[in-house]
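Onboarding guide, step 5: your first structure request.
Type a short instruction followed by the sequence, for example:

Predict the 3D structure of this protein.
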Amino acid sequence: MPEIGEVARIVHYLKKHIVGKTIAAVKTQEDDIVYGKVGCSASAFQKAMTGKKVLDARQQGKYFWLVMSSPPHPLMHLGMTGWLKFSNDDTSYYKPTKAEDKAWPPKFWKFILNMKEDPDCEVAFVDPRRLGRIRLVEADGEKMRTTTPLKENGPDPVIDSDVLTQEWLAKKLRSKKVPVKALLLDQANISGVGNWYSNTFSDAQIKQLHDSLIQVCKIAVETLADSSRFPEDWLMRHRWGKGKEGGGRLPNGDKIIFLKVGGRTSAVVPSIQKKTGPVAADVSEDANDTEEAEEDKEEKKPKKATKPRGNVIANAESKAKSTGATAPSNTPKRGRKKPQQEKVKEEAEEDDEDDEDEVEEQPAKKKQKGTTSAVGRKGMQREGKTAEKSEPKSTSVKKEDTQGRRRSARRTNASQHPLDATEPRTTMPQPLASKENSLFRSVVKNYESKQYKKGLKAAEQILRKHPNHGDTQAMKALILNSQGQSEEAFALAKIALRNDMKSHVCWHVYGLLYRSVKNYEEAIKAYKFALKIEPESNNILRDLALLQIQMRDYQGYIQSRTLMLKARSQLRQNWTALAVAYHLAGDLKEAENILNTYEGTLKSPPPKSDIEHSEACLYKNMVIAESGDIERALEHLESIMKSNLDRSAVMEMRAEHLLKLGRREDAEKAYRALLDRNNEYRKYYEGLEQALGLDRSSEESRQALKELYESYAGKSNRVDAARRIPLDFLEGEEFKTAADHYLRRMLNKGVPSTFPNIKALYANPSKKAIIEELANGYTSEKKMNGSTGNQVNGEISDRFEQSVLYFLAQHYNYHLSRDLTKAMDYIDRAIELNPKSVDYHMTKARVYKHHGNTKKAAEIMDHARGLDEKDRYINTKCAKYQLRNNENEKALKTMSKFTRNETAGGPLGDLHDMQCMWYITEDGEAYLRQGNIGLALKRFSSIYDIFDIWQDDQFDFHSFSLRKGQIRSYVDMVRWEDHLRDHPFYARAAISAVKIYLMLFDKPQLANSEEKNLENLDPNERKKALKKARKEQEKLEKAEAEKKAAAAKKPATGADGEPKKEDQDPKGFKLIQTKEPLEDSLKFLMPLLEFSPKNIEAQNLGFDVFIRRNKLLLALKCLLAAAAVDPEHPTLHEQAIRYRRALDSSSEKLPPPISEVIDSHFNLIPASTNISDKNDEFLQKHAQSPLHVHAALKVRQLLDPDKQAQHEKDLLATLDLPSISLDDACAGLSVLDEWNSDGVIKDTYIDSAQKKWPEAEAFQKD
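The system replies with C-alpha cells like these:
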C-alpha cells in the first residue's frame, strides 16, 4: 500500500516530466474494477484527457491528482500494487529493476499518456492486483480537496501542518478509545500515515507523538520515499527480517517482536518501547515471535515447491487451492502452528502491505458492534463453516468500494438455464478439507495425464465424504466421457450442476462434454454461463473463442478475443488473433487498425531475426491489399522489404502490386528478379508476359514471346520451363520445330515424364497430329540415335530407342489418341529392350486396364511391383489394380508391406488411422461391385468420418498457428475449411453412398443378405439354404465372441498408443438395416449439393432422393441446377420427364404456394408438351450418342413397358454406334438389368460386346 512518501515521489516525477505539457494521445484498457468501482470507465478517461494540458500535480495523503486545463481532473489512488512508470525515467526507489520491467508498454498498464512536446515521454499507470482506483472529478482545480473522497480524509501531516497541531492531536486522542497505531492509520483521522512509518512513533507523550508524526512524514516526503536516505535509527529500516534466519533484531542485538494492532502487524522493540498503560483487546503477539517457536524453527522441514503447469481445466485446480479450507490437527506438535493459523498468519503478513483503513466517500463513522475477531474467525473455519457464513453483515460496503478491497462474492444468472427448471437448486457444498483438497488436485492431474483409473479412484474417495461436491462430480464426469461413457458423464454433470450451480468448473465441464459430442451451440452456452461466474478465467474464455471461430461466429469471436486482449495485452498473439477475427468477419479497416495499434505500443523495433514480426508485417500487407488500396499496400511493402525475412514472398507480393497498379516497367524488373531466383516457376513467366504487355493469342506478340523464352532457355541447359512453355502458343512449322527440339532433348535424356509433360497439348488436334508424326518419324531413323545425322552414340542410342517406344505406347494409350493395339505393340518392344523396367510394365498394365481386362492388368502390375519391392508408389499402384479386379484381401496384403500391422485392426486399421482415402474409397467401390453393400457403405462412411476429423482438427490450429505466428497460412486454412467437402474424394464417396441408400429404399430385402442371395431359389431349396446360413452365422458369432474375449485381456491400441474403441459393426450390417434409408442418405447428400453444386451426378442423385421423399420443390431445385450445368445431359432428360409425370399423376392437389413456384420455374417440359413426342425429338437429336439413346429408351420403357422387346432390340443396336466406348457398353448392360430382361437377351448383348472388346472382363461368361 502506498505511503505518503511514495505518493510524493510520484508527484515529483509528474511535475518533472508532464506538468506544463499537452497530452497528445491516451491509450486505455477497460477495467471494471480500477475504473468501474469508482464510477469511471477507460473510454471516459481517454476522452476526458486527450488534448488537454497538465497544469499541476498535487497530493493529499495517499491520493494524488492532475490539475488539467479544464475539468474533469483525474484523481488516483495507487492501492496496494499500483505505480506510475515513465518511458524516459526510472521511478523505482527500493526494489531492483528487473529486465522484464524495462519493456514498454509495461505489464498490467491501465492507461498510457503520450505527451506532445519534446522530449518524448509516456506515462503508464500499472496495477497488477487491480486494487488502485482511477476516477474523474468534475470540479474547479483549486477546490479538489473539497470533493469526495478527499474531504472525508483527515489533514495531511506535511501540507496541513498548520492544522495538525499538538492541540488538534490531543483533542483527537482524547475523543477516541482505540489503540494509538489504529488511530494513526485511520485515514479519516490523518491522511497518508502508513504501516511503515507508524512503527517509529512513541505513544508516551502527545508531544512526542506529534513531533514524531510531523518529522517522519516530512522526511518521507523530502526523500521521495527512498528508504536508503531514512535515518539509521528508524525502526522501519530493521523490521524486514521477520521470519528470516538471524533476523528480528536491531544491530545492537535488541529483539524486535511483532504485534497485531488494529488488525495490522506492528514491529516493537520491548527493551526501548515500554508498556506504560493497558493493552488494547485486539493486540495479539505473533506466534512466530515466541522463544518456543524460535527454538522449534530448525525442526520444521521446508515444503517442496510445486511447478506450475497448464491444463485443460486449470480453473478446477486453482479453485481447489483458493476455496479449500485446511483441516487442523487435533494434537499439533510443540511449536508447530496449525494449518489454519498459518493461513491467518499469511493474511496478516499481507496486511502489512495493504492499508484497509483509508476512507473515501464514506465519512468516519462509529464502528458497529458484533464484528468477529481473528480468533473467532479461526474457530468458525475450524468447524468447517464457509467464509460467507462467518463474515458479519456489518462488513458489507455500500455504494462503491472506497478501500480497494477484493471481494470474492460470485454472481450468476444460472437460474435461466433449463437445468434449473428440472429440480430445485441445492446449497453449495462445503469447502474440502486438506486431504480431500489434495485428492481433488490429483483428480485434475490424472485427467490431464490420461490416467483415468487413478483419477476415478481419487474422485470416489472425495465423494464418499462429500457426496454432493459439484466440482468433483464434474471432474469425474469428464473422466467418464474420456473413457467413452458419454451418457453416464452427462447424467453426472447435470447432478454436479444442480449441486453447485455457481461453480464455473461445473459449467466449464458441461461445455467440454457438449463439445466432445460436437454439440457446439450448447457448449457455447455452457461456456458463457461459466464466464458469468468467473469472468477473468482465461481458460474458459479461450475455449469459448475456439468454439466461436470453429462455428464461424465471427462477431462472438471478436468479443471474446477483445476480452482476451484486455486480460493479456502484452502477448502479440492476442493482438493478432483480434485482427484475424475482424479480417475474417470482413472488417478489414478495423483489422488493420488493431495491427497498427500494437505496432504503436512497441517502444523499439523488433530484431531482424524475429520471424513472428516478419510474418505479421506480411499479413498486414495482405489485409491492406485485400481492402483494395494497392498503392498503400505497395508503400508498406517497400518499407518492410529490407528487414523482412521471407524474401521470396515480399518480392512476389511487390511484383503483383506493381502489375495491378499498371507500373509495367517496375513490374517487369520485379518478375525478372524473381526468375533469376527460380527459372522453373510458370507463374513468374506469366507475370513477366503481362508486364511486357504480350498476348499469346496475338500474332504480333508471338515473335516477342518466342525471343523472350529463347533468351531464358539460353541462360541454362538445364532449364525446362523456358523450352516447354513456347509449345503452348506456337503454331504450324514454328511449333513443329520447337516440339522436335524439345522431344529429342527429353528423349535423349530418357526422361520418363516426357509424355505427361506434353499431353496437355493434345487438346489441339493439329498439335496432337504433329507430335504423333514426329514420334513415329523417330522410329524410322537409323538405330534411332536421336540426331538428324547417322551417327550411333552407343548407350545414348539405346536410351533414345527405348524412350521413343515408351512415348508412343503412352501416346496410343491416351484417351485422345487411343489405339490400344499399337500401344500394346510398342510397350512390348520396349520391354524386350529392358525387361526389368518398372515403368514399362506399369504402362502395359494400363493398356490392359483400358482393354477392360482388370485381371490381366492386376497380374502385370503385381509383376512390376516385384521388380522393385522397396518402392511404395508401385506397391500402392498394384493394390489399386487389385481392388479394381475386386481382389480386396489380396490388395490389403499388398498394402500391409508398408503399414504398421501391429496396430489395432491390423493393416486395414492402420490405413484408416493414416486416413488413406484412395484405398478406402477403392475398397468400398470394389465391395459395391461385388454386391456387398454393407462393407461398401462402411468404407464410404469412413470417408465421411475422415472429413469430420479434418473439420475438428481446426481446433488445434486455431491456437497453434497464432502462437507460432503463421498468420497468412492460418487464414488460408480457415477459408479452405469453409469449402472442405468440395474435395473430389468426398464427392466420390458420397455419390456411391447415396446410390446404396437408393438401392436399399427401392429393394429393402438387400439389407438382409440371406434374402438377397436366395431370392431366386425355389421354396424348398431356400429353406435348406436358410438353415445352413443360420448355422454358419452361429459359427461366426462364436468365433467373434472368442476374439472379443481375447482382446479384452489386452486392449487394442491405436497408432498413438491410446486405447482404441471397438467397432461394434465391422461388416456394416447395422448401417444397411436402417429403417429410413432416404433420411440417412441426406448426411452425405446435403454437403455434396452445397459444396459441389456443379457436379451434375450429385444433382441427379439429389433429384432421385427428393422425388422419392415427395419433396417436389427440392427435386425441382436439383433439376434446375443440373440444367444449368448441362441442359442436354441424358439423365436430366429422363428425370425431367419423370418429374412431369409425377406432377400430372398426382392424386392430391398441391398447395397454392408450391404450385405457383413449380409453374413459374419448371419450364424444361411444359404441361402442354406431349412427352412421347418430346422423347422422340430428343432421341433423333442425339442418335449417335449411346448414353443419350439409353436415356430415351428408358423413357420409352417408362411410358410403354409392353414394348420392352423392341426397346431391348434398340438398345442392342447401340453397340454398333461408332462413338460407343467400353464404359457405354457396360452402362447398356446395366439398363438390361434394370429392366429385368431375360437371360437370352443379356447373352446376345454380351456376345456382341465381346466381339468388339474381346479382352473386357465385363463381357466374359462364367
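Each response can be followed by summary notes, for example: The chain has 58 helices and eleven strands.
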